[in-house]
Amino acid sequence: MPTINRIATPTHKGKKAILNKEPKLIENAKEALCLKGKNTSPIVTGIMKDLYDLKKPNAQIMKQKNDILPFEDVTPIEKFASKYNAPLFMMALHNKKRPHNFIMGRMYEHTLLDMVEFGVDNYKGLKEFKIEKISSGIKPLLIFNGELFETNHEYGRIKNLLVDMFQRETVKKIRLQGLEHVLSFTAVDNKILLRSYKVLLKKSNTRIPRIELEEIGPRADFICRRNKFASEDLFKQACKRPKALKEKKKKNVSKDTFGTTFGRVHLGEQKINNIQTRKMKGLKKTFSEKKMQKRKIVDDNDDGAKKLKESTD
Q1: Between residues 274 and 294, the one the model is more confident about
Q2: Domain segments of the chain: what residues?
Q3: Which one of 27, 80, 205, 211 has the fewest CB atoms closer than 10 angstroms to its CB?
Q4: Cα–Cα distance for residue pair 120/182, rounded to 1 Å
Q5: pTM of the complete model beyond 0.85
Q6: How far apart are CA 233 and CA 221, in angstroms?
């Protein structure tokens, strides 16, 4: 008997997963994948778990160790990123040559875009700060201190990667009580100092509260080691926005430095004498007014004829 090939129809859950992986105009918050290398240390696993706790629920951690060296072969990480639909990744490694090694990276179309390797120093974990923590899933305020982020090309790319890692979803409105968490990155002498603070809103004599920052951890100094950045063309392509999201420029509308909107209106030639204004019955010209207007026109014509005759003579 001939074999019949049946096409399996996806379930509701499968359809939802397929639609979730499709490209969107406005993307969801990016998922981050946390991996462990073949050899790790308590310091580097601790900082990765702390960043995982701050990144939740947009993060997944893999408990098993993986014999992966990203700077030698990144293919296994690309497969994991495609499988779990996670364009961001963090990896903890440790060896004699590069102790307490921490790697951050991101993907574009399931292939590596940027990757940076850090050494972790001066680490103090989230649990070592015995104070009240922030709510889970809070969108943090990102602060970047240091001229290197603006003047150095590599540090500029690292800043862009850190923003991509911690920014979460895009919001249109901000509630003051929702500003609970601050992540500070300071670039100093081949190091990036990570500090995490809780925002405290104190009473003041005005409507605006007084702001205080209380360190909640984690605290770490990232020593910049190796990096692998995308070419300028590929990076430009990855940052390209779809046409549907681009704001259309409005003609003759501008804004000043204070955000005030100004509009310019262009009008044609105004023929005021030909504009019909007397449409109401009570505003129509009387018989005497019409007679006076006709007499004036006749007088003007006579004066014009006399002047013409005098000029010809």
Answers
A1: 294
A2: 29-231
A3: 205
A4: 20
A5: no
A6: 32
Give the tokens for residue 268: 């044609």
* Per-residue pLDDT tens digits for 30-60: 889 999 999 999 999 999 999 999 988 889 9
CB atoms closer than 10 angstroms to residue 116: 22
CATH number for the domain formed by residue range(s) 29-231: 3.40.50.10480
Beta bridge mates, 202: 210
The tokens describing 166, both together, are: 């911690």
Q: What type of residue is 136?
A: S
Strands 101-108 and 111-124: antiparallel
Is the bond preceding residue 218 a cis peptide, omega within 30 degrees? yes
DSSP string, the chain: -----PPPPP-HHHHHHHHHHS--SSPPPPPEEEEE-SS--HHHHHHHHHHHHHHTTSEEEEEEE----TTT--HHHHHHHHHHT-SEEEEEE--SSS-SEEEEEEEETTEEEEEEEEEEEEEE-GGGS-S--PPTTPPPEEEEESTHHHH-HHHHHHHHHHHHHH--S--S---GGG--EEEEEEEETTEEEEEEEEEEEE--SSSSPEEEEEE-S-EEEEEEEEEE---HHHHHHHTPPPGGGSPPPPTTEEE-TT--EEE--------GGG-----SGGGSPPHHHHHHHHHHHHHHHHHHHHHHHHHH-
